Fold:
Amino acid sequence: MSSNGNLLQLKLRVWRQKGPDDAGKLVEYQLDDVSPDMSFLEMLDHLNAKLILEGQEPIAFEHDCREGICGACGAVVNGMSHGQEKGTTLCQLHMRKFRNGETITIEPFRASAFPIIKDLVVDRSAFDQIIRAGGYISVNTGNAPDANAIPIGKDKADLAFDAATCIGCGACVAACPNASAMLFLSAKVSQFALLPQGRPEAARRVKSMVAMHDELGFGSCTNHGECSTACPKEISLANIARLNREFAKSLISV
Amino acid sequence: MLDSKIPAGPLTEKWDKHRMNIKLVNPANKRKFTILVVGTGLAGASASASLAELGYNVITLTYHDTPRRAHSIAAQGGINAAKNYPNDGDTIWRLFYDTIKGGDFRAREANVYRLAQVSNNIIDQCVAQGVPFARDYGGLLANRSFGGALVSRTFYARGQTGQQLLLGAYSAMMRQVALGKVKLMTRREMLDVVIHNGRARGVIARNMLNGQIEPYTADAVVLATGGYGNVYFLSTNAKACNVSAAYRAHKKGAFFANPCYVQIHPTCLPVHGDIQSKLTLMSESLRNDGRVWVPKNKGDKRPPAEIPEADRDYYLERKYPSFGNLVPRDVASRNAKYVCDEGRGVGETGLAVYLDFADAIQRDGEETIRAKYGNLFHMYEKITGENPYRVPMKIFPAVHYTMGGLWVDYNLMTTVPGLYALGECNFSDHGANRLGASALMQGLADGYFVIPYTIGDYLATAWGDLRKHDVTPETAEFKDAVKDATDKTEKLLALNGERTVDSIHRELGMLMWDKCGMSRTKEGLEEAAAKIPQIREEFWRNAKVPGRGAELNQELEKAGRVADFLEFAELIVQDALHREESCGGHFREEYQTPEGEALRNDEEFAYVAAWEYNGVGEAATLHKEELKFENVELTQRSYK
Ligand SMILES: Cc1cc2nc3c(=O)[nH]c(=O)nc-3n(C[C@H](O)[C@H](O)[C@H](O)COP(=O)(O)OP(=O)(O)OC[C@H]3O[C@@H](n4cnc5c(N)ncnc54)[C@H](O)[C@@H]3O)c2cc1C
Ligand code: SF4
Ligand code: FES
Structure:
């Protein structure tokens, strides 16, 4: 681990918003003792500890696993969802990636379907609504045949797995100029479309999930590709192409 | 008396017979029952989905913003099942035996056998749900081997098995949400269990967005609220994991079993500074090729490359010539502690040992090592900024899993009628030590295949009584519980001292780690028992909780959880003090073989210690459930 000797001095500009109805604004903080070994969230912990002891309100931000898998964390750092590192969640970003004296702007994931709750915390429950609309295979507990009854080619299984690694963080929506959730939606549709178990409900699933997506106020996809660039799990745009094919198919199947 | 309700008859027939004998709820009547499930990890999500499919009305609570964030999402390695697809001789019996032995003969035979029996159904169910397990080129499911077993029985989805299994259970639950059978309440933190007329009839929860304290009534309550490893502050658990739901049930009469059984995982990233917020697990598969060492001499601060072979101590290879670097988790962890205690630890803090791949790279080539461990090396480099192909990794043990939990009978019911505990929050299947890939199996077994049967037996039997004593939010016990929770919240918000909640939590964690961690002594435990009340006092006198109650207030949430850890820690220490033997994750230095291995005392301690609450700071009362081993022979482990 790199040495603790060279502490970073940073200027932070953080979005502070008391509640959903507050206007909110960027507030500046100076932090002069940031260890390069800290994670980004530890840097925020550190700032929060100071704020608390000074009698100020700490910055609200979501997190849990702190190892890039739960999807709870996320913020727009210097204009990029989850910061500048590719394939990285905010909790996996470390301060050694920043320069001494740098100014860092930290804002919540913004989208009309993700209302701000407080500071950096946004309401992403719309993703649950999309899943609820069809992001499952209808099989009751106890009804399953032997797990090896249906062989699945490794190539397809691997592609299904790649799509299934989405962590539901919402970075794709925040990065999209239209605030579309198509990358998230396409990842789930693709996972099931690629697997034989998912085929029987494929048409119904895609129609219902897309309808819910639109109803929730997410924008439409116009192929900017920002979503995939921002995605910490590097979910591929090929999933959106597959979604479009599935959707077209669903319109002709009855 | 503790009645574990183990069905009579031969081990292999108990579960089938039990299912035949238990009462069933008439399908038309199921919709007249409401079951409250707290938690949406593997255990809670699978239970919610399965109970709703049967026709019950389910209300499911989680403190997360969405069920998919539960800590189960982070499990990496895999899930066991006795499918015997590799044809290497696995059977239900062998999985049962390995699990009982791995638990150092401190688990209940009947539960573990049932777990092994339903393991295969779990894999079938998950595949049908679209869980993308690893497959081979023929399109069939792949398996790998894991610690503590001689067969390949672990199913996996790359390094993200927990994520994929949880998303499967989450999807099944969301389908029931769409069908109106599960009412999902997110961002709700359960604060209390409500008991009316001797039965669990609901919970009190805080709406984390607006601070409202809400009553939820039901006919039975299922807790699936995870483990308590975060009492140590630093652990591999997600930050929000806590003991509050289980502990508050304990305060309402549920016995807590074996709290001192804590698993410490040997291969985690070491602590790097005093602001560190959590520890990251590195898969233990690394020990297949990495060699563990520290400098021979105390205080040798030379960079590893400058320390010649003669000045290195490959202590695992030296002490355990036949198992070497592959000794079990507890042995590897304890030895790392010993060398660091001797002042031979490495890194800035002196609390780390080297895991060195230089020999493996020289033998097999960098490409081979990259193919095997590339993603782990990459993760290591991301966090530490060091390249493990060039410089040995630094690792250290960390708290990882808690075998102890709420005491439950064979039906997974606690000592409070109508209150159930599933998954890591119960104590049931892992004895004193859990084998890799067995927690996921247990969580899903409990939720998909056990509770749907056993809860019906209770509801069918209690039906008349439940209706006669129906509850509403106006029932006295609910109003009292709301008031208690409101008062406690206000008390926390009034804390206006000079320390953050985290700093006090960290202090408690360090004490627990030093005195009640990998290696314990009577003196150390007594010291901890004396210090915990002082830290608790410090919390109530000098902690600071900012903000208001009627809004999202993350410090308030933390404070409530830490307040419980500060009481619960005493119970862990009491249990550790009373268990005058070493077994699995519980190592008492006084009780070891001449070779330094854990020395069990089967004569006196082959029982489950179930503790009854008597008040804050009061010693809990011990109840023993004797463990009878009728099918396996108790043996001593040796790894020399
Ligand atoms: C890094 C890591 C890797 C692991 N890898 C493996 C592995 O490879 N194989 C394996 O078998 N096991 C593994 N484990 C262990 C395993 O992941 C856990 O034991 C298991 O997932 C626990 O599941 P659960 O459903 O019991 O609880 P959790 O998944 O912890 O879920 C608890 C739920 O309860 C809710 N909750 C808790 N308290 C409250 C409250 N007061 N109010 C409302 N809701 C509440 C939470 O919101 C959450 O939904 C690993 C553990 C860790 C830490
Ligand atoms: S697609 Fe990527 S960015 Fe979008 S929610 Fe999933 S993981 Fe996050
Ligand atoms: S905190 Fe879980 S992904 Fe960042």
Q: What stands out?
A: Residues 124-252 of chain A form a domain with the Fumarate Reductase Iron-sulfur Protein; Chain B, domain 2 fold (CATH 1.10.1060.10). Chain A has a mean pLDDT of 95. The pocket of iron/sulfur cluster (ligand 2) is lined by residues A 166-172, 183-184, 187, 230-233, 235 (CB under 6 Å). Chain A touches chain B through 78 residues (CB under 8 Å).
